[in-house]
Amino acid sequence: MKPRLSICMMVKNEEKYLERCLASLQSMRDAFPSELIIVDTGSEDATVEIAKRFTDKVYFHSWQNNFSDMRNVTIDYARGEWILIIDGDEVLCNPQPLIGFLQSPQRKQYGTVAFTTKNITDLDDPRAYTSLVGFRLFKHDGYFHYEGSVHNQPIFKGGALAMPEVYLLHYGYLSTDTELMERKFQRTGAILKQELEKDPDNIYYWNQLSVTYAMHNDYKEAVECVEKAYSLLPEKRTPNYMFVLLQLMLVYQHEGQYEKVADICREALAIKDGYLDVYYYYAEAQALLKNYSDAVIYYEKYLALLAQREVQDEKDVSIIEYTLGYEQIAYSNLLRLHKEQKEYQKAMACVDKLTYKEYVINNLPNIIYLHLVLRQYGALRAWYDRWVGEKAQSEGDFLFQMMQQLREIGDEQVKLGVAQAFRSIDREYGLLCDLIIEDNEGYISERTQQAVAAVKLDSLPVYCSGVLYYLLKWHHPLETIIRDYKEEWLTCVLEYVNKHYTGLAKVLYLYLAKYESASSIREYKLGKSLARCALLLGGLDDDAYRQTFDRYVRDGIGYLNLVYQPAVLAEIMTFEVKNDEEIFLLYMCSAQRYSKQQKEYVRFLRLALQAFPGMKRGVELLAKEVKSESSEKQQEFEGYKKQVKATISQLIESGKMSEAKDILDQYKTLVSNDLEAVLLESRILLN
């Protein structure tokens, strides 16, 4: 009895996927009489052993560097009414429509059936595939055969039927399998170059050589080859050569030549509408060229066409579709484009379309921003509960991103709205929300104060650092909850707080004014750390700055006195202290010791400033005071000189030369080179 179906395969070293391939064919083989024909071209692995477990029709032929010739060898063995062509690294999925077709009289109306091949490029990414609708099932009429040495072309008679819902998973183009890709590159590239020597104007071969180079990541060569193919196109463009334009788009896109991508896309659209990849790559190019409105239009056209794809009857079997799995990427890009153009409602509509965890996480800052700017605090809390609850996103990452977006928006009412939505979180962030709400209402409740007392401040997550801001603002004694910590930690926390809260320098100044006295190492350390931060932040007027600077120097020196041996301070042992700040404080300590000796005092101020330039304003205030004090003393001395010389002059006029001479001699010991004194002395001598 003649089989209804002959399954024809040519294989070589296909052990990795062959068993899955053959198992996927079993439902068809069980549905009607069929035969499985496998031609091996020199396998060195377990391919033949696996094949013989499924069929006794295993044949051996040597490889002749021509794919079509070998396909035709497999066809020569076939006896069935229909022939299915499949490779050993392909797995048939959803074969039921195909089975139904072969069991129905409808099969007599057609000469071939096309279905989808999904070329998987990354096993870890379900969206990493290209798609091609191609002819795989053929009527065995004695005419059907293949031509072309590389990408063999089926030659057949009769009508064609498309069944895109039937598909093959093809594992022969895994970019992660470097050995496989290198083997295919060497084999295919060599054959294509050989064919081009025979036929140098063959557009198809130049294009396929470009594809081969691109798969090998040799994009310079890929561009050169497809540009050669493009130069050979007839002046009147037709859809028959759309595959060249699509390859040009791909390689130009990879090389960042977005203007060229846009030009080729426009050319393709002028030839024929409806190609999925053209819309996608045109949209992407326009986005990268910052033509956002056009990018939005073509992303939306891409998505509309994608939605129609499964029900579309007409397929271009010459085209590989690279963007069939890019729906989530398109929505992700649209979200960002709408946000960029402040079309927040449209951007939020795209958020609802994101279903893959990867794209949700990548867009988390945008998603949070949209909820905040649209004042959708309850919905944002629902997002938090969903994604943190499902462990798709860590609590810390979500809350940290939320604080970053709050900072970007910079609206206190938004911050308050978030606090009200998130205050029920039974952790540190819930405490921060309580502080935000109560601060807005003008008080800190007893319950919140008790909660604060139970917190170890130096172990707070960074996104909860705002707790410190409100404790400072409400003058909560920090030494009761901050005990063992590194100053670097407190500095980093205060820097973070300053980015997210306004007026921190003034808050620190008022806090330090509230707690003036310090006597322990911890108190000195905390005082100098807070004062240093207030000074470096800026924003204080001269009076507040000077008071804070004095506190910083006082607590800093007090800290050094308790931490180091007296000799370190007395002998200014700058190499024995741990950083430039402490060197600054050593010099300030010495400056204080020499405060009555202006020259030494100023020298130590200069050394201090060299050690810690960040304190320039404070040192300049001290230097200004020295200068002012010196000016006052000079004015006082000038007055003294005038008074003494007036007295001497009166004594001379009164004839009291001896008294005048005594006073003048004393004056000359204090003031030298005074011309008026010389004249007075002359008057005395003349008398």
Automatic annotation (TrEMBL):
Pfam hit, one: Glycos_transf_2
Gene3D superfamilies: Spore Coat Polysaccharide Biosynthesis Protein SpsA, Chain A, Tetratricopeptide repeat domain
Domain Cytochrome c-type biogenesis protein H TPR: 178-309
PROSITE patterns associated with the record: TPR (PS50005)
SUPFAM superfamilies reported for this sequence: Nucleotide-diphospho-sugar transferases, TPR-like
Family annotation (SMART domains): TPR
The TPR repeat ranges on this chain: 203-236
Designated name of the protein: Tetratricopeptide repeat-containing protein
